[in-house]
Specification:
The chain is of the alpha+beta class. It has 3 domains: 77 residues, SH3 type barrels, CATH 2.30.30; 132 residues; 245 residues, Orthogonal Bundle (MetI-like fold). The chain has 15 helices and 13 strands. Strand 7 and strand 8 form a beta hairpin. The longest helix is centred in the first third of the chain and has 46 residues. The protein is globular and about 95 Å long. It starts with a helix and ends in a 6-residue tail after the last helix. It is a multi-pass membrane protein. One of its GO terms (molecular function) is phosphate transmembrane transporter activity. This is Phosphate transport system permease protein PstA.
């Protein structure tokens, strides 16, 4: 036994076991997040439940079973819930998502299993997804066009889907017009306003310049009026139709079709139809904008903001990190100052991220951004341009946060390159700069990519510093659009990490937001893995490309 321990094999097995346990724990956590998040998109059965209260009154509840749990009878009695005649120690209670927010005080309600006297899943129960007030559960009674019924009992579903498709197409055309051509006109009007203000500050606002700007503004306003009429026409056409629903109160409710996004009959769907609906809902979650204080809709602006900010951060941190590492390893002398710099770089990696956020807010936003506004954008003051949090300051702040990782990784790669290669290149007449550019950096490129991979993995998941230097709950515009200069680095942006925090802890509807927390968390992990796999593939390609230089 003593010989076995001295051979080191127990430590090998312990290390392998620890790695295996860690890997299983990580995969299990990812599986849990994926299950809780992706199950949200699966069409759940809609129940029509009749409940009898202790006083003998009855009511009907329509909704989907959201959760269930075992509760002790003693706990219920202590909370004031009386269940006469029930003798068991525990009972099951069900959490129903009933929707219909404008008519029901709570979207979710708990129902005790002994109180249920009827539980059915009728095939005609429908779920109406709306742009406001969440889902509506009930029976489709009629489809109305300009106040007149246009559907029979046999054709009501076909007519409903046709009218929904028409209304959604019109709403999309209106949104494209508002965000595209109308947005471009508003952008141009604001540019002309700033141009007039700049000429006024410089004392160059002559009558001719004023006339030129006024003519340009009038042309833009004329185009705006035409597009506005077109926008109103789209909205009028979308509001032509309505759907009449009977809810769990037994009352008929008319829902304008322009507020309807989709309609499904989950209880009447086969397995293949449910799979198709599942992937359709995932696609909507990835490509659509959020609604209802981020508790409904998709997360596309957050995905775009996360990827854009990480790519911008990578473009900033890579050259600075490589230059710093090359100087420290190839040019700096081996003295106390160099050692002190290396210690400082390593210590920077341990600074809490929120400290970087405070530094970015104070130095980059207020000092640098405020100075840029004074020098280059005085016409926009007192409204700041770069003197306010934005995507550029977020990228620079995270670049400083991840800079030590890139420096250390690059320097490790440089130290593994044999000195004989440097000496051989110099002996053949190459300068030190040529040796560095043609021999050293290509061979160190896999190490540089490793540092970038670690930097991306950390930056994509950071939230605390971004809350101070650029991220917001809801961004009206993306940092990239069709207006010159196309990349608007002064704009605020949305981020998946902050979206998780906002939905999980700031949401007014906790139960509705809980599945979105899991879904967004899984999406964030997927984005990080995707970015890392891309960087790893580039690193492997570079490693194979420059492998011949090692021999």
């Amino acid at each position: 036994m003593n010989t076995w321990f001295k051979s080191g094999k127990p430590y090998i097995w312990l290390t392998a076991g620890a790695v295996s346990v860690s890997l299983i724990a990580v995969l299990g956590l990812l599986a849990l997040i994926a299950w809780r998040g992706l199950s949200f998109f699966w069409p759940a059965a809609i129940h029509e439940v009749e409940v009898q209260a202790n006083d003998g009154s009855k009511r009907v509840i329509i909704g989907e079973i959201y959760d269930r749990e075992e509760v002790s009878l003693e706990r219920l009695q202590e909370s004031g819930v009386a269940l006469d005649g029930y003798q068991e120690d525990t009972l099951e209670r069900l959490l129903f998502k009933v929707g219909n927010r404008e008519f029901v005080s709570l979207d979710f309600m708990w129902v005790m299993e002994p109180q249920i006297i009827r539980n059915e899943t009728p095939r005609d129960l429908a779920v109406i997804e709306r742009s406001k007030d969440g889902n509506f559960y009930g029976y489709v009674v009629d489809v109305i066009e300009n106040g007149q019924s246009v559907a029979t009992a046999e054709s009501i579903r076909t007519v409903l889907f046709e009218r929904i498709e028409r209304a959604v197409a019109l709403n999309e055309q209106a949104a494209d017009l508002q965000q595209g051509e109308i947005g471009a006109i508003n952008y141009e009007l604001n540019r002309l306003r700033l141009e007039r203000r700049a000429l006024e500050l410089e004392g160059q606002l002559t009558a001719a310049e004023e006339q030129r700007i006024a003519t340009a503004e009038e042309a833009q306003r004329a185009a705006y009026r035409e597009l506005e009429q077109q926008l109103f026409a789209y909205r009028d056409q979308a509001s032509r139709d309505s759907v009449v629903m009977r809810d769990m109160r037994g009352e008929e409710v008319t829902i304008p079709m322009y507020r309807v996004l989709d309609a499904t009959f989950p209880n009447d769907m086969g397995w293949f139809a449910k799979v198709a609906h599942f992937f359709t809902q995932i696609g909507k979650f990835i490509t659509e904008d959020p609604r209802e204080a981020n508790t409904e809709g998709g997360v596309f602006p957050a995905i775009f903001g996360t990827v854009f900010m990480v790519l911008l951060m990578s473009v900033i941190v890579t050259p600075f990190g490589v230059i710093a590492a090359v100087y420290l390893h190839e040019y700096a002398g081996k003295n106390a100052i160099t050692r002190l710099i290396r210690i400082a770089v390593i210590n920077l990696a341990g600074v809490p991220s929120i400290v970087y956020g405070v530094f970015g807010l104070g130095f980059f936003v207020y000092m640098v951004g405020g100075s840029l506004d004074q020098i280059f954008y005085p016409e926009a003051l007192p409204s700041p341009t770069f003197g306010t949090p934005g995507v550029m300051w977020s990228a620079i702040t995270l670049a400083i946060l991840t800079l030590p990782v890139v420096i250390v990784s690059t320097e490790e790669g440089l130290s593994r390159i044999p000195s004989t290669l440097r000496e051989g290149s110099l002996a053949l007449g190459a300068t030190k700069a040529e040796t560095l550019w043609r021999i050293i950096l290509p061979m160190a490129s896999p190490a540089i990519m490793t540092g970038l991979i670690l930097a991306v993995a950390r930056a994509a998941g950071e939230v605390a510093p971004l809350m101070l230097v650029g991220v917001v709950k809801s961004a009206p515009m993306l940092p990239v659009d069709g207006n010159f200069p196309y990349f608007h680095l002064d704009r605020k942006f949305m981020h998946l990490g902050f979206h998780i925090y906002d939905v999980g802890f700031q949401s007014p509807n906790v139960e509705a937001a809980r599945p979105l927390v899991y879904a967004t968390s899984f999406l964030l992990v997927t984005v990080i893995v995707g970015l890392n796999l891309t960087a790893i593939s580039v690193r492997n390609h570079l490693r194979e490309k420059y492998r011949s230089l090692e021999h």
